[in-house]
Each structure stands twice: as C-alpha cells, then as structure tokens.
Specification:
Keywords: Membrane, Transmembrane, Transmembrane helix
Number of domains: 1
Helix content: 40-55%
Organism: Streptomyces griseofuscus
Pfam families: CbtB
Strand content: under 5%
Mean pLDDT: 82
Distance between the termini: 71 Å
Number of strands: 0
Protein name: Cobalt transporter
Low-confidence stretches: none
InterPro entries: CbtB_put
C-alpha cells in the first residue's frame, strides 16, 4: 500500500488585511517610481538638491527615463 498524498492547504487572507497590503504596496511602488522617474530639480520634493537624482541616475537611464 502507498501512503496517502498530502493535500496542500490554501492560505486564507482576510479581505481587510489584503486591502492593507495592496494599498501599502501601491504606495511604496509610487514612491519608488517618483524617486527614479520623476524627481528632478524642477519637480523635486527636496528643492534644488540633486542628491536623489544623482543617486538614481544610472537606474533612471537603465529603465528608460530621460533626464538630460
């Protein structure tokens, strides 16, 4: 006789917790998109400070965002 096969049990996630994770993930994704794709001198949250721009400069070009 062979041993009975173990059936996988599904992960049950309450809707409220799923919404929390989806909204949190979307906010983090938008923040990353802003800092890599949008943040430049004229639109910068930090004014004319270009440290963020220079930090993500190569990633910006790698992802296809023009900056100069």
């Amino acid at each position: 006789m062979s041993a009975p096969a173990a059936l996988p049990t599904p992960v049950v996630l309450p809707v409220t917790k799923a919404v929390f994770w989806l909204v949190g993930t979307a906010l983090i994704a938008l923040a990353i998109y802003y800092f890599i794709g949008v943040d430049q001198g004229a639109y910068s949250v930090f004014g004319k400070d270009m440290h963020v721009h220079e930090f993500v400069h190569d990633a910006r070009h790698f992802l296809g965002f023009p900056c100069h």
